[in-house]
Write a structure and sequence with these properties.
Oligomer: homodimer
Structural class of chain A: alpha/beta
Strand order of the largest sheet of chain A: 2-1-3-4-5-11
Distance between the termini of chain A: 76 Å
Number of strands of chain A: 12
Number of helices of chain A: 12
Helix content of chain A: 40-55%
Strand content of chain A: 15-25%
Number of domains of chain A: 3
Largest sheet of chain A: 6 strands, parallel
Chain lengths: 342, 342
DNA sequence: GTGAAAGCGCTAACAC
DNA sequence: GTGTTAGCGCTTTCAC
């Protein structure tokens, strides 16, 4: 009850004048059957009375399973991660696993640090949402045989379980949407190309422009190095300055899109009247924005759920073949895209 | 290096033909001084070569300190928590502590569950952002002598360390701002009154209205039971329906304010032209909204930082007197408030 | 069906 | 300055 000292298995055993092993068996659903129901009931009663809670540290030390999964996301502030985390946590906690959450500041060295800290804490596996296309933090997990799944961003090489976004399908949706509105001169404001999602969207853009019979004007492709508003502002400004005609921008993600809109406005251009803008991710509250952003939604909670399921399964079946789960994006039409003027 | 088996202190000791205790001492900065620098160097070298990482579980079991702090927030999706978390994590990780993060779904029973799970994991202390004014989950921590600090929401009784918002100062700022714009009929759309922040803002509203010589019209105070947009919509509708004149709404928080604006628009009223609305919290991206919300900002990262510092200090000084840190809010003027019409 | 005993990896008296 | 030893709380083989 209101005991100040911790109650251990031994305490329960002493109270009942039985052995700790019997107490352990009584409290574990899997071994409970070995004991008489009466003993089990007695143990449960006294455990409840004394307020016994298992010491996971001791369990972990003994069994080698910490029941912890390390989860690393790039950035706590980016609103796309909470739903992914929620998906992860829901599945993990159902299976009595606990997430150890850290953020990498979008930095491989920090990620590696966190991974090592988590290794100290004997995590049973990793869910990494922070991977770069080449990433020594991820490679470290691989080299140390730490069960690992990436979610969203992935390595170039398919060396581990991964949950990926069908970025090509997403960009196709975006471009077809713009084309259906009559746009011909479509610009692309990229995210970082050293991140798979950034790169895949960039490659998909070029491919889809050509696939739809438009001409690919390389000068309408501007390369950013971050998935941030700031980067979007820079890219927007660059696009505007070069004075080449364009009536629409496909952005690497929503934050970049928001930055582009900001740059357009600063230059006296209206979105969508002068330039349509389309984002990627469908971050929260977009519908309430001054310019409600048309975007490509991804099923974030599902991605988290998938990631957790995959890592849990990997722990049980270490030898199973590599998983590669692809989630499908969806177009969300809002007010930042409209019919092309000319 | 790429060892598949875990490297233990014993492995290092065997390699160097010394005792594990020497290895332990060499690796611990505090006991390093007991050994010859040469030995220390040797141990560090071999530890590095074999890729030794300490087993925190064993450390925890031995020392009784898990170096984990349990952190419970009400809701992962609410954008005000990430900055608080960030503040917490930054301080904790500096001190080699790791947060165990869970969310309570704004539900005392769930919070209690999570607390018990964390107790199993031997957390050294708790940071709770999920407290209700009466809260048996918090009481459980108290009763079990688990070092605990609340951040933001607090118990009615000051029984434990707490980081609180000066809600009265915040509401004062809001009301004075509206009065300076000529508003006289000011409504209040409350948050839940069983949460300290909700209740304190409600009480402060009544007090400040009177303190400024306005008449307190109880019918202009509508009570919600959640800090959500949905609740805000309901409250806005109720305010509009009763057909009493009001030119401004003070909302329990930003989400409620956003809901009010939504209700106003549905009723054909414009914000701020017909009704000014002011929120609380200054959630992210508000400046980009269609109606950029005027609000009361709170220093969220600082709150998290404070909470972590307080709990860390409490671990070192269990007998110190109860802490009560108050953070000060600030008015952020945006476009949702303007001069009263009449 | 239950007990005895070993040991997970580590730290911290206590020796010398 | 370094070794020896016990033991944190738990699970699990091996007895009986």
């Amino acid at each position: 009850m209101t005991s100040i000292k911790k109650v251990t298995l031994r305490d329960l055993a002493n109270h009942l004048k039985i052995n700790t092993s019997s107490v352990s068996r009584a409290l574990n659903p899997k071994t409970r059957g070995m004991l008489t129901p009466e003993l089990v009931a007695q143990v449960e009663k006294i455990a409840d009375e004394l307020g016994y809670v298992q010491n996971t540290m001791a369990y972990a030390l003994k069994t080698g399973r910490s029941m912890n999964i390390g989860v690393i996301i790039p950035d706590l502030m980016n609103p796309i991660y909470p739903p992914i985390l929620k998906g992860i946590i829901n599945v993990l906690s159902q299976a009595s696993y606990t997430p150890l959450i850290a953020y990498s500041e979008n930095n491989i060295a920090t990620a590696l640090d966190e991974i090592k800290k988590m290794k100290m804490r004997q995590v049973d596996g990793f869910i990494l949402a922070c991977a770069f296309r080449q990433d020594e933090a991820v490679e470290y997990c691989l080299a140390n045989h730490l069960p690992t799944v990436t979610v969203g961003r992935s390595l170039d090489a398919h060396k581990l379980d991964q949950i990926v976004i069908d970025n090509e399908a997403g960009i196709k949706l975006a471009i077809r949407h713009l084309i259906s509105l009559g746009h011909k001169n479509i610009a692309f404001a990229s995210g970082p190309l050293d991140i798979s999602d950034g790169n895949q969207r960039y490659e998909a853009f070029k491919k889809e422009i050509l696939a739809n019979g438009l001409t690919l004007d390389e000068s309408l492709i501007v390369l950013g190095d971050e998935f941030t508003e700031i980067s979007g502002i820079n890219l927007g400004e660059r696009l505007i300055k070069q004075d080449k005609p364009f009536s629409a921008i496909v952005a690497g993600n929503d934050l970049v899109a928001l930055g582009c809109i900001c740059a357009l406005e600063s230059a006296g251009l209206a979105c969508p009247d002068d330039v349509s803008v389309i984002g990627f991710n469908n971050m929260p509250y977009l519908s309430l924005f001054k310019t409600p952003l048309t975007t490509i939604a991804i099923p974030r909670m599902e991605m988290g759920k998938n990631a957790a399921e995959v890592i849990l399964n990997r722990l049980i079946n270490p030898e199973e073949s590599l998983k590669n789960i692809t989630v499908t994006p969806e177009l969300i039409e809002r007010g930042s895209t409209s019919i092309a003027k000319t």
